[in-house]
Design goal:
The protein is of the alpha+beta class and 118 residues long. The chain has one domain. The protein contains 2 helices and 5 strands, in the order βαβαβββ.
């Protein structure tokens, strides 16, 4: 089982929901900045190619409890400061896994995969 934190409001053009760590820069909060800075020290950054041309998304492994708690704090602060709803989405099958470490995976959702016609 995997967990992802996203803005409840989908992007109008793509209908995809953005992960909250991608929008933290526009929050103007020292608290959020500090939490994200600490996450950056302990949470590996997946290689760019694992996102498969921008189609891959990050999911936390449920065992990454400390990271998840920190991101929940970020979610609370973002909801408070930006008045935006944050969703926690769980999935057993997030798609094709292109990267994995002790805390997270990157997966390309089934709907975003390009069929192999060969």
């Amino acid at each position: 089982m995997y967990l992802r934190f996203v803005l409840a409001k989908a992007q109008p053009k793509t209908r995809r929901r953005i992960g909250i760590l991608r929008v933290t820069g526009s929050c103007d909060s020292e608290e959020v900045d500090e939490i994200v800075r600490r996450l950056g020290i302990h949470l590996p950054i997946p290689p760019r190619e694992s996102f498969s041309g921008g189609r891959g998304v990050c999911w936390f492994k449920l065992e990454a409890r400390e990271c998840i708690e920190r991101v929940r704090e970020v979610a609370f602060l973002l909801e408070k400061r930006r008045s935006e709803r944050i969703w926690q989405i769980y999935s057993r099958n997030p798609g094709l896994i292109t990267y994995e470490d002790d805390y997270q995976i990157v997966a390309v959702p089934e709907a975003a995969r390009i069929p192999d016609w060969s």
